[in-house]
């Protein structure tokens, strides 16, 4: 069964450093998403991406965040200058044309720790 | 998006059937009901989705009454590995690209 994959599984960085989180969505999917989950809290939507542009973004997704689909397979989330409060699990998700609204397939996540 | 309400936690024993009910009084005509499962430190996993009546797959059943103001996720004969957080989400019929709004979910604990 196809899966969404994410790398790295864990990332430790210093405050102010840039990080890039990588995702490989399911191959025939066209919609891509990033979510995050701070320890003990809800899963929060960050951004959705379709046709090489952002479809929707949340208030969390400020100028420090960016997304890119640099090639036909990868989907990345960049945090330009990390803050302590960016420490969280970051989940990538994807969905296809045949998936109804509400159906998304999540990756295993990247645990980001900002020191 | 329709707001959902579900119990914060539930306890069960192996082999029992577990029913988790979600209230969504303001569900819209074009909203589907979707349930996700999340294990600690893992991404949410799609379990089942329905619009009305009953839907069954290899993992669970979803019961939706005629007024669609609530839904019940039924897990038959749970095992320890079903210990997880279960989320009820309500969202549009339209295709992809729609954000998912997760609540706090129901923490299901299954014991021997």
SSE layout:
The complex is a heterodimer of chains A (115) and B (112).
Chain A (H helix, E strand, L loop, with lengths): L4 E3 L2 E4 L5 E6 L6 E7 L5 E8 L2 E5 L7 E4 L6 E5 L8 E8 L9 E2 L3 E5 L1
Parallel strand pairs in A: 2-11
Antiparallel strand pairs in A: 1-3, 3-8, 4-5, 4-9, 5-6, 7-8, 9-10, 9-11
Chain B lengths: L8 E5 L4 E6 L7 E8 L6 E6 L2 E4 L4 E4 L5 E6 L8 E9 L13 E6 L1
Parallel strand pairs in B: 1-9
Antiparallel strand pairs in B: 2-7, 3-4, 3-8, 5-6, 6-7, 8-9
Structural class of chain B: mainly beta
SSE pattern of chain A: EEEEEEEEEEE
Question: How many strands, which pairing sense, and closed or not: the largest β-sheet of chain A?
Answer: 7 strands, mixed
Order of helices and strands of chain B: EEEEEEEEE
- What's the quaternary structure here? heterodimer
> Roughly what is the average pLDDT of chain B, rounded to an integer?
92
The helix content of chain A, as a percent range, equals under 10%
Approximately how much beta-strand content do the residues of chain B carry? over 45%
What spatial form of chain B do the alpha-carbon principal axes imply?
Answer: globular
Number of DSSP strand runs of chain B = 9
Shape of chain A: globular
Question: How far is it from the N-terminal to the C-terminal residue of chain A, by CA?
Answer: 37 Å
Written description of the protein model:
The complex is a heterodimer of chains A (115) and B (112). Chain A starts with a strand and ends with a strand. Chain A is 0% helix and 50% strand. The model of chain A has no long low-confidence stretch (mean pLDDT 94). In chain A, strands 2, 4, 5, 6, 9, 10 and 11 form a seven-stranded mixed beta sheet that branches. By secondary structure, chain A is mainly beta. In chain B, a hairpin with a 4-residue loop joins strand 5 (53-56) and strand 6. In chain B, strands 1-9-8-3-4 form a five-stranded mixed beta sheet, with no helix packed on it. A four-stranded antiparallel beta sheet of chain B has the order 2-7-6-5, with no helix packed on it. Chain B has 112 residues and is an all-beta fold. Chain B starts with 8 loop residues before the first strand and ends with a strand. The model of chain B has no long low-confidence stretch (mean pLDDT 92). At the A-B interface, strand 4, strand 5, strand 9 and strand 10 of A face strand 3, strand 4 and strand 8 of B.
């Amino acid at each position: 069964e196809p899966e969404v994959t994410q790398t790295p599984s864990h990332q430790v960085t210093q405050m102010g450093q840039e990080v890039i989180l990588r995702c490989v969505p399911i191959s025939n999917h066209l919609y891509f998403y990033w979510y995050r989950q701070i320890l003990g809290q809800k899963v929060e939507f960050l951004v959705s991406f379709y046709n090489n542009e952002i479809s929707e973004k949340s208030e969390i997704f400020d100028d420090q965040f960016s997304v890119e689909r640099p090639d036909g397979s990868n989907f990345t989330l960049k945090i330009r200058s990390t803050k302590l409060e960016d420490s969280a699990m970051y989940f990538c998700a994807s969905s296809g044309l045949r998936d109804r609204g509400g159906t998304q397939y999540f990756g295993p996540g990247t645990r980001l720790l900002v020191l | 998006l329709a707001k959902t309400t579900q119990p914060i936690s539930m306890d069960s024993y192996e082999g029992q059937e577990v029913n988790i009910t979600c209230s969504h009084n303001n569900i819209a005509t074009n909203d589907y009901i979707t349930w996700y499962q999340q294990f600690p430190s893992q991404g949410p996993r799609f379990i089942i989705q329905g619009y009305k009546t009953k839907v069954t797959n290899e993992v669970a059943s979803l019961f939706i009454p005629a007024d669609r103001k609530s839904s019940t996720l039924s897990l038959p004969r749970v095992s320890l590995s079903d210990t997880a957080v279960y989320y009820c989400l309500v969202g549009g019929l339209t295709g992809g690209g729609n954000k998912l709004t997760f609540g706090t979910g129901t923490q299901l604990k299954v014991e021997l």
